């Protein structure tokens, strides 16, 4: 099955419920990230103003909980997005109802997966039940296996000691946000509808080449099952995208910023060259690129080798992926990253020649 034949689109305010909290929690970093991905980027005024006003009125206790579950270093709660896409949920009430039905142990498993990376598609879930109530075993597992920050490892250890309390705390945060904040969200319905029309038109006219730009150059050629690629348009993700891969999900979800739909079409050679040189102007990216020459690694493997959290690895190579210097492959076992040495060299030499 061709990659383009796997696509289905999604749209609705529900797909901004979790990204809205993520934007509030990480706004400054996200804005800088958007600028790096898209030269000339300017924040959407309505979003920027909503974030500014909302942050001023949020209680400190809520801000702390948001940072616990949505901090960019380990955005645990974003792992739950497939609950929405897999079940075709339309409203926040439907999502919260579905979440309340999730056993605490399963919620803990989902949170832990984000610390294991794409390799976790084949994660042995029985380890969760073995660690519950056994602090020593949980501590050893987190220390040796999880690519989380030290702070998040400590948090995860607390979760293992009392998953019921952890779930109650998390659900309370989402319920409070749903009641007090989400209804105030600035949301441009017209812009979202236009973005959806453009997305469908671009997919039809530009095909797989365009799709690859939307999904981090991820190839599905080696995947034989009928897995779908769900493209959900988001207002708050704005000028980027993020993939969510869950071992129990039937499909892969990509939350795509509504402005990203057309920004990836920019093909100014000078701008592309500048983006590539900028992407390679950071020592960690050069180290990552060299590591991937002629080899395949999962995000988890990369994190372990470079001693970085998953989020740090993602931030490091997102620009390399956007510039087509790194390719990604979706297989039955997980998601793999690679770089072809000759192709990268030819790409850069060719770019230099074009701009002489």
Provide structural commentary.
The protein has 17 helices and eight strands. By secondary structure, it is of the alpha/beta class. The chain folds into two domains: 14-184, no CATH class; 267-356, Arc Repressor Mutant, subunit A (Orthogonal Bundle).
List the helices and strands and how they pair.
Layout: E1 7-10, H1 17-37, H2 45-57, H3 60-70, H4 81-87, H5 92-100, H6 104-113, H7 126-131, H8 135-144, H9 150-161, H10 163-180, H11 189-214, E2 218-219, E3 229-234, E4 241-244, E5 252-257, H12 260-263, H13 269-279, H14 283-292, E6 296-298, H15 299-306, H16 310-322, E7 327-330, E8 335-338, H17 341-354
Helix pairs in contact: 1-3, 5-10, 6-10, 8-9, 9-10, 15-16
Kindly summarize this structure in a few lines.
57% of the residues lie in helices and 9% in strands. It contains 17 helices and 8 strands.
Shape: globular
Annotation field: number of helices: 17
H-E string: EHHHHHHHHHHHEEEEHHHEHHEEH
Give the uncertain stretches in residue-range form.
Answer: 117-122
Features:
57% helix, 4-stranded mixed beta sheet, Arc Repressor Mutant, subunit A, alpha/beta, 9% strand, 8 strands, 356 residues
């Amino acid at each position: 099955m061709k990659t383009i034949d796997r696509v289905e689109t999604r749209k609705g305010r529900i797909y901004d419920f979790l990204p809205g909290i993520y934007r509030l929690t990480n706004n400054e970093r996200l804005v800088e990230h958007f600028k790096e991905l898209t030269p000339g980027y300017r924040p959407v005024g309505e979003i920027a103003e909503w974030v500014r006003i909302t942050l001023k009125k949020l209680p400190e206790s809520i801000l702390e909980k948001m940072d616990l579950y949505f901090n960019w270093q380990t955005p645990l709660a974003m792992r739950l997005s497939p609950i929405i896409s897999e079940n075709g949920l339309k409203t926040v009430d439907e999502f919260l109802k579905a979440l309340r039905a999730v056993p605490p142990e399963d919620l803990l498993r989902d949170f832990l997966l984000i610390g294991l990376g794409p390799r976790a598609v084949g994660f042995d879930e029985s380890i969760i039940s073995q660690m519950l109530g056994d602090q020593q075993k949980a501590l050893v597992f987190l220390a040796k296996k999880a690519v989380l920050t030290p702070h998040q490892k400590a948090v995860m250890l607390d979760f293992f000691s009392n998953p019921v309390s952890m779930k109650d705390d998390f659900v309370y945060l989402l319920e409070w946000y749903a009641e007090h904040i989400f209804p105030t969200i600035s949301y441009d319905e017209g812009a979202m509808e236009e973005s959806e029309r453009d997305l469908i038109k671009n997919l039809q006219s530009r095909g797989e080449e365009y799709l690859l730009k939307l999904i981090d150059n991820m190839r599905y050629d080696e995947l034989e099952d009928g897995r779908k690629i769900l493209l959900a348009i988001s207002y708050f993700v704005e000028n980027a995208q993020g993939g969510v891969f869950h071992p129990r999900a039937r499909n892969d979800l990509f939350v795509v910023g509504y402005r990203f739909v057309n920004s990836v079409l920019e093909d100014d050679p000078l701008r592309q060259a500048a983006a590539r040189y900028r992407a390679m102007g950071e020592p960690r990216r050069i180290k990552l690129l060299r590591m991937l020459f002629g080899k395949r690694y999962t995000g988890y493997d990369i994190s372990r080798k470079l001693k970085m959290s998953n989020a740090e690895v993602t931030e490091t190579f997102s620009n390399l992926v956007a510039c087509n210097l790194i390719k990604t492959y979706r297989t039955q076992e997980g998601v793999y990253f690679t770089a072809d040495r000759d192709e990268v060299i030819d790409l850069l030499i060719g770019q230099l020649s074009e701009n002489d």
